[in-house]
Amino acid sequence: MNSIGYNAQTITTSAAYILTDSRQISFPEQSIFFAIRGNRHDGHQFLPYLYASGVREFVVEENAFTEPLRKETEKWSDASIWVVPSSIRALQKLVADKRRNFHIPVVGIAGSNGKTIVKEWLVQLLSPGKRIVSSPKSYNSQIGVPLSVWNMGNEHELAIFEAGISQVHEMEYLQPVMLPTIGIFTNIGSAHDDGFKSRKQKITEKLRLFTKVRKLIYRKDYTAIDEEISLILRPVNSFLQTISWGKPDSGADISVICKPENTGTVISFSGLFGELRFETAFRDDASLENLTHCIIFMLDFGISAPVIQERIQLLKPVSMRLELKEGINHSYLIDDTYNNDIQGLLMALNFLSQQEQRQKKTVILSDVLQTGQTPGELYGTVAKLLKEKSVSHLIGIGKEICSQSALFDVPQKDFYKDTDSFLRDFPFDTLSDSMVLVKGARPFSFERIVHRLQQKAHGTVLEINLDSLSHNLNYYKSKIGQETKVMAMVKAFAYGSGSSEVAALLQYHRLDYLGVAYADEGVSLRQNGITLPIMVMNATMPAFDLLLQYKLEPEIYSRRMLADWIAYVNKNGAQAEIPAVHLKLDTGMHRLGFVKDDYEWLSEQLKQNPAIKVASVFSHLVGADEGVHNEFSRKQFELFMEGALRIEAALGYKTIKHILNSAGIVRFPDYKLDMVRLGIGLYGVEATGQEQHALLPVGTLKTIVSQIKYLSAGETVGYSRKGELKHDAAIATLAIGYADGYDRRLGNGVGHICVNGTLCPTVGNICMDMTMIDVTNASVDEGDEVIVFGKEVPITELAKRIGTIPYEILTGIGDRVKRVFYKE
Ligand SMILES: *Cc1c(COP(=O)(O)O)cnc(C)c1O
């Protein structure tokens, strides 16, 4: 067919799936791929890979459709390729065209906070009795909205989507894609976003989602929203009917009063729907606001107050986190027990297949939430997905999945009619060395399964936010551009964060290189399924066999080491492929590396030993983070280039040249060369301090309150009676000590712990396993979780207080602290 249409305005496709990320293929023959070009990724690069994987429909951008690519695609006689000015706009148009075929109510949710929670809650509250399609997770972007709306089908009776924007004009594109008929404007934050001139502009831009809605629910207490609705929205939407709510004096259609009670909150309504009263276990303002939006929506939707009351009783806080943690029997657990529909399952399976740490992949799956398909169709799709993702063991739980058991073609399968019988009858010892995905719909209470399968934590956990890590990586990538490679430094247990899990994510992001300090760190990565090239910075002779066996590339830094390596290669070169090496030049650090006097000798040796392949030549700046060393950094660079070019001349081929670490990328972008070595920045600390705002914190160290005591002024706390109380105080003992990495210098008031939002100082000396803090001003109970560092207590601040650097805090976190990895 090969319909390369150069000005093809209309894309006609029968594809069921839209693909924008080449790493997430599930049904290639039924997918259409939109090649999207950002400043860090270019989807066009992956066309040949996708074609080889079976994808046959492609949308590409004029500017990126280069001559070589065009030549390549001309060979694909069975493929359709549409060349468009912008893939994102083409995607939006395709979905907008599809959207117009449906005539069901579509709820559009906009606002600064609460969009995802209101959406998820509405789905929970309305799904008894309604077949609903909704945005998966928080798919609310220029790409996320079309992907969500694409899932609409004839079986659906109601759609609920969210839309988020970060710049002006974005909503104009999302409005026709979603075409909501009912709007909910959750709220507006006071934070000033980079993409907008003012808060007012932010509101008017968000309101553009509602230019065609018949009804808009909003909170009148946000007077700026109220004003803009009258000024901007009404003139362009003459059908608009608003339902506003607010405090009794706000003049809203519905007055709402929230009153705390023993067991929760009572919400009283008066006005539009009469006098009504609802009880909920939620107490915090944000949840009450979100819940009020939901209740008003349901009232307007015709659901009676008693039914609403019954359903809101069952609501739980929304945690859409997908967690990766250590499980029993040397397994890993992926905990995604929030909901279970096909979209959610697909995402979880994609995450599962990214995890190379274990070969064996087990899926514990409940009945999948129905959306109008017959069980045969639904589980047929599920079975195909499991096969595509090479799942080795399926454990199905639920009556429906049991009845479809014959559909599943996996090496091992077991079925249980409910969670209880699984927990009672399953031989848990047999579940070992596996990557286990636990994915179940709410009613199945799969949290009980997670509880049974996970390694018990001792109260202190380091939570690693994988989304933040990706964000930080992308930030640095966008600074250096596509031409420069990235080596991520994952030495010292990935700066304390967990090497194989971090490395698996970096491998997923198709990074170029990983760097470790010692050979055994590299071996451990290989044993956990990491196939990226790995440089080992300090591999001495006894480790050479490991280098060969595990394809690890050594840094060569001295005459003696090069001589050893040459001798080793001459002896063993015939047996195995010899890894390439990386030459380290010492341009001022005076730690490891060849100095200027060695260059002549080095060049000569390399010429004489062509079996030694040099992958890269590099050096390290001693003071990239500080302006006072700028002159020195420049000298280092010059010295490095002189040496590197000389070595390349001797070799007769080009090598990868690199000198920048994280701080260097920020302060010396001109020196980025062929590759950069990214370390601390990946983990959320911007070493120069100049661009800290652009990074997201990655690690949150949490512990729990073991006990609370009420002591009088004059009493002392802890060893050596160091913590003498100046006032009557509530003292909490925490399950963390210096053996966990909470530095002893943080004792006696130097360190602060965040307790339910209040910073509380340490009292007395830090013990090996415990720390005491003054919680007199906090509201806290025994067993509560508290934050040692994270967003509330930045690592940089902690480091400063005890005169050290964030690197030391991060790498000092003890082995017995469990690492939990999660994605939003
Ligand atoms: C650790 C290390 C890096 C990374 O440094 P950051 O300051 O963490 O970015 C780069 N190069 C070498 C040689 C290193 O040892």
From TrEMBL:
Coiled-coil portions: none
Keyword Transmembrane helix: no
GO biological process, one term: D-alanine biosynthetic process
Domain Alanine racemase C-terminal: 698-822
Required cofactor names: pyridoxal 5'-phosphate
Catalytic residues, chain numbering: K491, Y719
Keywords, in A-Z order: Isomerase, Ligase, Pyridoxal phosphate
Binding-site list for substrate: R591, M768
NCBIfam families per UniProt: alr (TIGR00492), PRK11930.1 (NF008897)
Similarity comment text for this entry: Belongs to the alanine racemase family.
Primary role: Catalyzes the interconversion of L-alanine and D-alanine. May also act on other amino acids.
Protein name: Alanine racemase
